[in-house]
Design goal:
Structural class: mainly alpha
Order of helices and strands: HHHHHHH
Distance between the termini: 78 Å
Oligomer: single chain
Shape: extended
Number of helices: 7
Helix content: over 70%
Number of strands: 0
Radius of gyration: 24 Å
Largest sheet: none
Strand content: under 5%
Length: 156
């Protein structure tokens, strides 16, 4: 009995030693830096279009909608040709946060499940990642809207 426990302890120590040797090194600072740079560049592209359409005389509401549509188009197009995934591997969370990441989260599953057909593949799997984001985003906006309405009604 005592002999089997010592063998077990030796195995645990060896496993622990091997797992720490194999474990990838933490690149937190490097990952944060690239996420910041690439995410910032995506935002600079959006700001470029914002300034362009503002200077063309579009209303503020139309500028916001137009820039959102263009950024979604860019994200979806880059995903479709396989570039967005390469950028995401390099930049991590920097590509998830902007609206281009939302476009990627819809297009990537659609491309992946295209072989299963348009209804059960593309249609059913398109919102596997973006669906919960939409549900919770819309739900939260409704709740915040109700709170805002009530606060304005009570404190008027």
């Amino acid at each position: 009995m005592k002999n089997s426990k010592s063998k077990e302890n030796i195995i645990k120590k060896e496993f622990s030693k091997l797992s720490t040797e194999i474990e990838p090194k933490n690149k937190l600072i490097k990952n944060c830096f690239f996420a910041f740079i690439i995410g910032g560049l995506l935002c600079v592209v959006g700001q470029f279009f914002n300034n362009l359409f503002t200077n063309m005389g579009l209303s503020e509401e139309n500028v916001g909608s137009t820039v959102s549509i263009i950024m979604v188009f860019i994200g979806a197009s880059l995903t479709g040709v396989g570039i967005y995934d390469k950028i995401a591997n390099f930049a991590g969370a920097g590509t998830v946060v902007p609206i281009t990441g939302f476009a990627n989260s819809i297009v990537a599953p659609a491309i992946e499940f295209k072989k299963e057909g348009f209804v059960f593949g593309v249609g059913a799997k398109m919102f596997t990642i973006a669906g919960p984001v939409l549900v919770y985003g819309i739900s939260t906006s409704v709740i915040v809207g109700i709170i805002h309405y009530c606060a304005n009604y009570l404190f008027k």
